[in-house]
Amino acid sequence: MTDTIPPTNQDPLTVPDSAVPAAPVSNSPDYTPAYPSPAVLDMPPAPQNKKPRKVLIISAIVAAVIICLCLTTCLIMFGRNAYMAITERDEIHEVLHLYMELMKNHAPKQAYELFSSRVKRVDGIYEELEKMTQGANATLFEGYQEIEMRNINITTTANTNQDLPQGQVANVSGVIHYDDGFDGTFTAVLELEEDAWKIYYINVTVPPEKILP
Known about the structure:
- The chain is of the alpha+beta class.
- The protein has helices at 51-87, 89-104, 108-112, 117-120, 125-132, 208-211; strands spanning 144-157, 167-178, 183-193, 196-205.
- The chain has 2 domains: 52-87; 89-211, Nuclear Transport Factor 2, Chain: A.
- It is 35% helix and 22% strand.
- A 4-stranded antiparallel β-sheet has the order 1-2-3-4.
- The protein has 6 helices and 4 strands, in the order H-H-H-H-H-E-E-E-E-H.
- The protein is elongated, with a radius of gyration of 55 Å.
């Protein structure tokens, strides 16, 4: 036996709209909370470190002061040396003239005293002076009349080599006048030693015709 559900002519069950409860209607207005935008602060720029700039300015000022001092010192020394070239000219001339006179008169011992203590430390200097008054070398001094300084330059010199002239140093050159119209030339270096000019170096040259018999 089989159960059979008999067909029905009725429509499927339909629930009328009125049977569905309506959603409650709110009389309150639609409200969406407004959140404020994040605040943007106008921050002042971070202060720059001015220390390096100050250091540069101070360094520049110090450098400028040093340069000015150096220039001032150089100008003072240059002016002093130029002044000495004028005021010391006669004393330097007297030393060189006396040297020529003593060598002409065959007095190397006295001429030796005109040299600086720096030169006297060198062995054999006096013997060399003696040789200069003998033989053909003597013609460098025979007939000597006058020494004429044409160039003189005084400088302040410092050197670690103690064999070189130090302090106030005079470089001199000029002409030597002899009998019979002969003219020679000379160069000399003198250094100021205890307020007196002393010979460090001197070289005398004469024309060949003065030496030849």
